Amino acid sequence: MLARLREFLREPEAVFWTYGFPLMLAVGLGIAFRDRPVEIVHVDVQQDARAPEVAARLSSRNDLVVAVRAQAECRERLRMGRSSLVVVPGDPVTFVFDPSRPESAFAHARVNDILQRAAGRQDPVRTADAPVTEPGSRYIDFLVPGLLGMNLMGGSMWGVGFVIVDMRVKKLLKRLAATPMARADFLGSLAGSRLLFMLPELLVILGTGVLLFGMPVRGSWLAILTLAVLGAASFAGLGMLAACRAQRIETISGLMNFIMVPMWLLSGTFFSSERFPDLLQPFIQALPLTLLNDTLRAVILEGASLASQAWRMLALAGWGLIPFGLSLRWFRWN
Amino acid sequence: MRPAQTEQDGASAVATAAPAVRCRGLTKHYPSKTGPVHAVNGLDLEIRSGECFGLLGPNGAGKTTTIEIFEGLLKPTSGEVEVLGRRWGHHDDDLRQRLGISLQETRFPEKLSVIEVLSLFRSFYRRGLEPSAVIASVGLTDKSSAWVGKLSGGQRQRLAVACALVGDPELLFLDEPTTGLDPQSRRQLWEIIRAFGRRGRTIVITTHYMDEAERLCDRVAIVDRGTVIALGSPAGLIASMGGAHVVEFACSPGATLDQADLAALPGVREVVSAGSETALTVAEPHVAVPALLGLLQARQLDLLRLTTRHVSLEDVFMHLTGRHLRDEDVSPA
Question: DSSP letters along A212-281, please?
Fold first, then answer.
């Protein structure tokens, strides 16, 4: 029995050559969505007797790159999007810019502000800025558990569903069904191998979050691992259900996207699911990816205990067990 | 393991034992848009233990459906099937342990090596052969650690047969094992199959190559449109045609020859005409051919082509159905 399972694990080991892909995706997305530095805005000052003075005032701010240029060059650079704003000194000082470009509007407000204050404007209300950089509340901290959840979903669904349909297309499933192989062993080893391949993904995504972006991990690693195993197993069940009768690769691809794309959007991977209307909330909260993402965030970012997440975990397990049971019943070997 | 003497005595010693496969009134219907398709239509067979049995027929005759019902992969619409004295649905695991199967088309995982695939299949059986020994027996030792993706068509087919052999089966099912292979690969596979048969084991093979059936099989069933239309040893079926030779000739277009005149030639048993081509089944070509040439000369007809050959199973099939074995567009009636 054990030998069978072990023997079978060797197969996906070789078949899953694509499993490096989710890792690349995680790192790529992690870098793409890391905190952006404070935006640098290019401002050109049109050549004029007063231009150096204006430029000097603006240059005192480190978020503006200021240069004095001839009129034609200023317009050319503005048109090509290389600068965001052209300042024409004089009375009145004229700002040339496209108000529909966010960075131009920002530059306009910023430059106007600096010039007014330099001319002696007093602000009637005293204000102070308190930039948020505390680890745990930044966007990247929100994003990494979501990415992890999304990867667990994608990896399990594709890793199980796609492999099954691929083997069915190649008649390999039929050939295996003609052997005395226990069918539960087969499905179990597929899910088991998926869980093994999930471990490096988990390490890479969390490792990237912690080492590159200083994301805090407040919950226990064991709890995170338990959640990851639960999530991966649940989505493996869903993937199996999607694959249990599909006869062609195109069918399974369509089905997978049909199941996963709505969850990418709704389940709070890239932004909070609470932005959707209240009417949709009960539905969104019941989605397996929402359950997984929210539980992961609670454990990783807030240090919640698994016991406090019991209901969500139970619902998530249901999302795995029910499809698994159905797919056992409906599974088509040839 | 079987007792040693059966391996020496070969097929004849175990032929009297219980049948390896027996089916009665087997039917299989598939629903389709134009009404049900009768892939298998009332098929009776008894395959003896220890023989090499061939299911011979054109594409679409129901051979694959039949063999897959025997293999327990398909459920018949009606009829009884007994394999090794057991029925599917009651002793499935026991049966699967004792069967070796090669499907018409299986694409094994391309990124696994030959030895890994064999070890995987070996792991499914309680008892069986050493994977490396099976690889040697199908002549793939050189390729043992090569990836499946790098194998040629013939090598892949030998791998498929090796996977069927690794459980040391009592009964081997091979579905069109040599289709699409080059002559050398076909001969290699035949030798593997013969070696298995020499050990007193039963083989059921489907094919649409009559030469394959003639060379390999102790008995063949010619299957057409889901039923058995002839059953017997290849030599017996050929003998049933009456003559041992076929004389085929073609005259210049437009020439008319009376079939009755041809049939009246000495030793001619059967006349089949198709266009300008005519085939005569004859007992003694050295008598019939001079007589035929004399007839053509008397009618002042030009002979374009003349060949003589031994009667084959193809001729038996044509005699029974009026069609060629390898007509690709045979549609179930």
Answer: IH-----S-HHHHHHHHHHHHHHHHHHHHHHHSS--SHHHHHHHHHHHHHHHHHHTTSSS-GGGS-GGGH
Contact A180 B93 (CB under 8 A): yes
Q: Which CATH number does the domain housing residue B27 bear?
A: 3.40.50.300
Q: Please check whether residue A142 lies inside any domain of the structure.
A: yes
Q: Which of A175, A189, A193, A334 to mutate to test the interface with B (most CBs of B within 10 A)?
A: A175
Q: How far apart (Å, rounded) are the C-alpha atoms in residues A48 and A67?
A: 12
ipTM: 0.77
Is the preceding peptide bond at B285 cis, omega within 30 degrees of 0? no
The answer to whether residues B46 and B191 belong to one domain is yes
User: Can you tell me which residue has the tokens 């995504």?
Assistant: A205
Chain A residue numbers touching B108 (CB-CB < 8 A): 170, 172
Predicted confidence at residue B201, as pLDDT, reads 92
**Same domain flag for A165 and A312:** yes
Q: Is A282 a member of any domain? A: yes
**pLDDT number for residue B174:** 94
CA distances from A72 to A47, A78, A168 (A): 10, 10, 66
Q: Report yes or no on whether pTM surpasses 0.80.
A: no
Residues of chain B with pLDDT under 70: 1-17, 243, 254-255, 324-333
A248 at interface of B, judged by CB pairs closer than 8 A: no
The CATH number given to whatever domain includes residue A65 is 3.40.1710.10
pLDDT digits (tens, 9 = 90+) for B194-212: 999 999 999 999 988 888 8
Q: Cβ-count burial of A29 within 10 angstroms (0-12 exposed, 13-18 middle, 19+ buried)?
A: buried
Same domain, A325 and A186: yes
Structure letter (DSSP) for residue A77: H
Give the C-alpha separation, A199 to A195, whole Å.
7
Structural domain span for residue A107: 41-118
**Which of B233, B257, B290 lies at the terminal end of a domain, its last residue?**
B233
- For residue B166, the chain A residue with the least C-alpha distance is A179
Q: Flag if B101 and A175 touch (Cβ within 8 Å).
A: yes
B204 in contact with chain A, both atoms CB, cutoff 8 A:
no
